[in-house]
Amino acid sequence: MFENEPGSPLPPARSFVDSDGVTWEVRQVRTHLLPERLAKLLGTEERRRPGWLVFQAAHGEKRRASPFPPDWPDLSAYELERWCMRSVRVPPAPERRREDR
After folding, report:
1. pLDDT tens-digit readout, 63-101
2. Taking the domains of the chain in order of start, what are their residue ranges?
3. pLDDT, tens digit, for every residue of 23-48?
4. Per the confidence metrics, is the pTM higher than 0.70?
5. Could you write out the three-class secondary structure of the chain?
């Protein structure tokens, strides 16, 4: 599911510290790597087909960006922060599941 699984030839997760001193980890999620059950739950909406970036802060906040630049692993911390701040906040799991239906 995530790009940095062992044996994956794709870019690994990245960490960066934003201008407020918050540490974030960013990963690319690819829909074709999702378990079948999860893929069915998420559906085949156009916005999810190409995958997305997930930003997770050390304090637990999550954000999702789609579409995203293909060269995201090479972006500077400043550029990643800009993408993170423009991305959509992901609600906690119970709320998120209601949205996904």
Report:
1. 999 888 889 999 999 999 999 999 999 887 665 555 555
2. 14-99
3. 999 998 876 555 555 555 555 555 55
4. no
5. CECCCCCCCCCCCEEEECCCCCEEEEEEECHHHCCHHHHHHHCCCHHHCCCEEEEEECCCCEEEECCCCCCHHHCCHHHHHHHHHHCEEECCHHHHHHHCC
